[in-house]
Amino acid sequence: MLCFCAPYTSHMKLIIKFFPEITIKTRQVRKRFVSQLKSNLRLLMAAIDSQAKVNGSWDSLQVVLGPDPELQARAIERLCNTPGIAHFLEVHDYPLGTLDELAELCIQNVGQQLTGRRFGIRCKRVGNHPFSSQEVSAHIGQILMQRCHAAGVSLKDPDVWIKLEIRDQRVWLIQARHEGMGGFPLGTMEPVLSLLSGGFDSTVASYQMLQRGLLPHFIFFNLGGRAHELGVRQVAHYLWERYAASHRLRFISVPFEGVVAQLLENVENSQMGVVLKRMMLRAANRIAERLDLDALVTGEAIAQVASQTLPNLAVIDQVSDLLVLRPLITTSKTDIIDTARRIGTDAFSSTMPEYCGVISVNPSIRSRPAQVAEAEATFDFSVLEAAIQAAHYADCCDLENDLEEGSVVELVEEALVGQVVLDIRASDEQDARPLHLSGIEVVSMPFYTLGSRFAALDPARAYLLYCEKGIMSQLHAQYLLDAGHDNIRVLRLRKR
């Protein structure tokens, strides 16, 4: 089915429709939500197109973009991923004349598409006019049938839809409709601290906070060294850049290797998982209070692992003075992975090691407070305090730069004859922007295949991992180095 459209050759007007729950709020709350969304959009659109303008108030917002097609495409993608938007419409905006003049506009925009096809007309009208929406549709339909050689009219399954909105003395001819992510505008709800491991669960839980208008600052408990942190920083940066770039989000990394060492040495095996989560919540509470945040967020779901049974969650929560939110508490793993795939984080999470799950061999599923207190009696809490004090704070907007600092992976700016460049970008990225290096062998090996394919390569050759930003390549190079492959470097091509 086609909707009439025109190429992006001129200024573009987009009509923003609010998430339905916004429209049923009280007048004061709705006004606040719309004002926040308008402020967010002005920041986001200005970062893309200096000519962009955002107007409107109660019923909808209007975004007007400059004529650059590339900037228009980027703005559309950004709006699709901005909380608070149910959908938005690309429109051609005209002054309202007579119905005959409106029919002429339709012929100019869509007339050539109607020959031999069935069409349908939908008209929405706001304001006082001497005609009804049905009369507009009938009048225009009759003229189009007479002049455009259409096959007929169908309101159930037309080949071409003609959609228009009449608002007072303006008429919008709708070119396309884009779906938004829904939810509430960022900044309308309170900030929270989200425990982020980089896996499917914590990443989706953080996204759901964003979708509901909360600002999730991220806290990461590093159990796996630099390689683990590289991956989680990439996830945090992705969530911020794609869904929350209108606001400042923090990323806090807490070195937890010492805490894990204490657990392995002093805590009875069956209680390790619960005690580790309690240590994480204790640290998260301290840091949340320091940042004046109102709640903690975790990706836990009922009975997904041993520490997530109801008795164990109750014991874990006892150490938290703050509300602990668990948006995924009744969500299946399949649904969580489906959401990760939809929001674009599945590729990150699928390659992230699950460090938390490897500590306890025979975990208890019904820990009692007395048992846990006894297990923690010999724990040296000065180690936890040292970890909290050593936490590193960064802004999510700076995470890409931070990833380049302190990496133990060797970076090179050019490949030498005899070396092999492994292009680890996803297949669609490789197809869109192929990598060609004169005299250098380039092998396509998407990052999610490295684990199964790299071992089969010639160990006598030198390999350079390549991705456009260099982040994913650093992460996987570190994994390979840790696995004993010392013939790995990262290729960072100089920008031209």
UniProtKB/TrEMBL annotation:
Name the principal localization, coarsely classed. Answer: cytoplasm
- Spell out the InterPro entries in the cross-references: Rhodanese-like_dom, Rhodanese-like_dom_sf, Rossmann-like_a/b/a_fold, ThiI_AANH, ThiI_fer, ThiI_N, THII_Thiazole_biosynth_dom, THUMP_dom
What are the protein's GO molecular function terms? ATP binding; CCA tRNA nucleotidyltransferase activity; sulfurtransferase activity; tRNA binding
What does the UniProt keyword field contain?
ATP-binding, Cytoplasm, Disulfide bond, Nucleotide-binding, Redox-active center, RNA-binding, Thiamine biosynthesis, Transferase, tRNA-binding
Write out the annotated subcellular location. Cytoplasm
Q: Where is the Rhodanese domain?
A: 415-494
Sorted alphabetically, which PROSITE patterns does this protein's record hold?
Answer: RHODANESE_3, THUMP
Membrane-spanning parts? none
Q: Name one GO cellular component term.
A: cytosol
Q: Quote the SUPFAM superfamilies the UniProt record gives.
A: Adenine nucleotide alpha hydrolases-like (SSF52402), Rhodanese/Cell cycle control phosphatase (SSF52821), THUMP domain-like (SSF143437)
Domain THUMP, residue spans = 73-177
Q: Name one GO biological process term.
A: tRNA 4-thiouridine biosynthesis
- Please give the name of this protein: THUMP domain-containing protein
**What is the source species?**
marine sediment metagenome
The opening ranks of the lineage are: unclassified sequences, metagenomes, ecological metagenomes
